[in-house]
Amino acid sequence: MANVSGGDPMVDERVNRPTVEELIIKAESMKLDKDGVRAAFEHSSAPKFVAQTSSWLPDSEAVHNLMLDAVEPYLTNGGRVLDLGSGTGRLTRLVLDRFPECSVVAADYSETMRAVAAKELSEYGERLSMVDLDMFDAPWHSADLEFSDFDAVVSGFAIHHGRSFDEDKSLYQRICESLRPNGLFINLDHVAGESRRQTISNAANWRDFLDQAGNIESDRFIVGSYAEDTPISIPEHTKALNESGFERVEVPWQQMFFALYQAVKAS
Q: What angle is formed at CA 73 by the lines to CA 149 and CA 56, rounded to 5 degrees?
């Protein structure tokens, strides 16, 4: 058969490229269990991925500022913040810098990530506490820390590692218990579409974004995301939050398969 591309290898690559749906199906066949996800975060390359956030998250700076703007009314008098799945401390640093009177508890189960964070955030002294915590394990406990009366709980790209609606709901119940009345929970994360078709469309838009950026292998990123992540949709998050003691669920920002959503603990 004749080469319909006329011999252009770039055209051949595009013609033979898997569809986004095929990539997601491949990822689902490779789905990591909890131990696999944990092992991925202990790999030496994990901190580098976090450092690349602005390369794969659209409007990264703007959405993080939007997140901090939402937190601000809850930290008028200093306050305590819990950063769940804090990783290398990227979001923790943003909170500590924006609100110089507050303190942050950075909670993560990855020894590799916590080691990087401890080095990167050493300047904050007693304003920062670091805790080894698997957020999906119940109960939360620490010999040195009481998980209660936080003014805000923040998280970024961690809760999608839950494996079901029920697991996310159980997590939201623990988050609610850790907040003071009228405290804020806010999360920036990977979410599913309301249908399979919408999920595929959102992922296709993300692939286009990554292709245009040109510095990340987009197909590999899509496979990796769906092999590690188990996102649920915004309506499912809303249902789980409402059933866990939260009210006023809002979505200040959403693009592709990313969303910033927040809720307030009932008084």
A: 95
In order of 2, 60, 239, 261, the CA distances from 63 in angstroms are: 49, 5, 24, 11
CB 106 within 8 A of CB 130: yes
Residue type present at position 259 = A
How does DSSP assign 213-227, residue by residue? H-SS-HHHHHHHHHH
Mean pLDDT over residues 10-24, rounded?
A: 76
Residues 242 and 185 sit within 8 Å (Cβ to Cβ): no
Name the pLDDT band for 7 (thresholds 50, 70, 90): very low
| Three-class SS state of 2 | coil
Exposure letters 138-150 (e unless 16+ CB within 10 A, then b): eebeeeeeebeeb
Give me the pLDDT at residue 11, please: 43
34-192+232-265, which class in CATH?
Answer: alpha beta
Exposed (0-12), middle (13-18) or buried (19+): which is 202, by Cβ within 10 Å? buried
Q: What residue spans define the domains of the chain?
A: 34-192+232-265
* Alpha helices (H) in 72-195, listed in sequence order: 90-98, 111-120, 165-178
Which of 172, 151, 148, 153 lies closest to 237 in space, CA to CA? 172
Closest CA to 98 of 130, 64, 57, 58: 64
**What single letter denotes the amino acid at residue 246?**
F
What would the pLDDT profile of 147-190 be if each residue is shown by its tens digit?
A: 889 999 999 999 999 989 999 999 999 999 999 999 999 999 99
Q: Each residue of 44-81: pLDDT tens digit?
A: 566 666 667 888 999 999 999 999 999 999 998 889 99
